Amino acid sequence: MAPEDSQLHIFFFPLMVHGRIIPCIDIARQFAALGTKSTIITTPLNALRFGDSIDGDKQASLDIEFQVIPFLAVETGLPEGCESTSSLASPAMLMSFFKALGMLQQPFEQLLQEHHPDCIVSDAFFPWTTNVAEKYGIQMLCLICMERAT
């Protein structure tokens, strides 16, 4: 592995949906296996939900971790602990969920300032990450997941 100061560091920022988080963790794991420091940005409950998987990767000496940012569910009218689309009780809550997604920008920028990653791999549901990456001079890739018809 390269010295710490020359190690490539990638932030992965998936939408809080199992169908987006799981593939993003798999991609981050592949980069970590190649010697890249991989940091997955998520919310507290999602970090708990997927923590065992990442703990196993760390035990296998992969440089992979979660960085947790707060999800302002209550502030946007959602119940406490509603941090994933699977926890929405009704479709009417979707607008509040998307409002809370927009409120992730400030804590995300704070993480960028603290960690200075080389690249951001972000979900298309965070369109503001493009402007944030440009603001901090960080390379950016946008994930657009498409399902294949069976």
From TrEMBL:
Gene3D superfamilies for this protein: Glycogen Phosphorylase B
Alphabetically ordered keywords of this record: Glycosyltransferase, Transferase
Single GO MF annotation: UDP-glucosyltransferase activity
Family that this chain belongs to: Belongs to the UDP-glycosyltransferase family.
Protein name according to UniProt: Uncharacterized protein
Lineage of the species this protein comes from: Eukaryota, Viridiplantae, Streptophyta, Embryophyta, Tracheophyta
